């Protein structure tokens, strides 16, 4: 099972900040939404937190 880390992330298109999950492979996905309100789907991690014990790999 791949682990995912919770972090703060920012939309690369407009700069909005989201809670995100980052997988071991580097994929970053916002938590609770599929994309930013501006339509952006690319995010960068601002800072990392502890591994999310409830995350599931898809």
Describe what this molecule looks like in 3D.
By secondary structure, the chain is mainly beta. It contains no helices and four strands. The chain has strands at 4-11, 17-23, 28-30, 43-51. A hairpin with a 4-residue loop joins strand 2 (17-23) and strand 3 (28-30). The N and C termini lie close together (9 Å).
Distance between the termini: 9 Å
Number of helices: 0
Task: Report strand order across the widest sheet.
Answer: 3-2-1-4
The strand count comes to 4
Instruction: Quickly give the structural class.
Output: mainly beta
Mean pLDDT: 85
From the alpha carbons, calculate the radius of gyration and give it in angstroms.
11 Å
Strand content: over 45%
The dominant shape is: elongated
Residue share in helix: under 10%
Give me a quick take on this structure.
This protein has 58 residues and is an all-beta fold. It has strands at 4-11, 17-23, 28-30, 43-51.
Write the layout of secondary structure elements.
Layout: E1 4-11, E2 17-23, E3 28-30, E4 43-51
Antiparallel strand pairs: 1-2, 1-4, 2-3
Primary descriptors:
58 residues; mainly beta; 4 strands; 0% helix
